Amino acid sequence: MAASKLTLSVDKDTIIMAKERASENNISVSKLFTTLVKGLPKKKKESDPILEKYKDVEIPQWIKDLTIDVKYDSGMSDDEAKYEYLKEKYGL
Questions:
Q1: How confident is the model at residue 14, as a pLDDT?
Q2: How many CA within 13 A on the CB side of residue 92?
Q3: Buried b (16+ CB within 10 A) or exposed e, 16-37
């Protein structure tokens, strides 16, 4: 893989420490950085066990009938959305 340049902003003490660590290990600062980044554990996406358990469960129609389908823009408050729904439902 071709290498690309990266500019980092760090304080002078960190630069000195990085150069010392790289020198102690007979590697470049770039190789040190690569080794450190690749050595970091990948953060696993934590899943909700309850959502995982019920993710494939079909919602019964009677529950769907209890919900309202409101389509509104993200700038509306909940009260405004409720008003718009009731206005449309009752033809106001």
A1: 93
A2: 7
A3: eebeeebeeeeeeeeebeeeee
Tell me if residue 61 falls in helix, strand or coil.
helix
The upper half-sphere exposure of residue 24, i.e. CA atoms within 13 Å in the direction of its Cβ, equals 7
Three-state DSSP class for residue 2:
coil
Residue extents of the structural domains in the chain? 49-90
DSSP track, 7-50? -----HHHHHHHHHHHHHTT--HHHHHHHHHHHSPPPPPP--HH
Place of tokens 């106001």: 92
Predicted TM-score (pTM) of this structure: 0.45
- Residue ranges for the chain with pLDDT beneath 50: none
Q: How far apart are CA 87 and CA 61, in angstroms?
A: 25
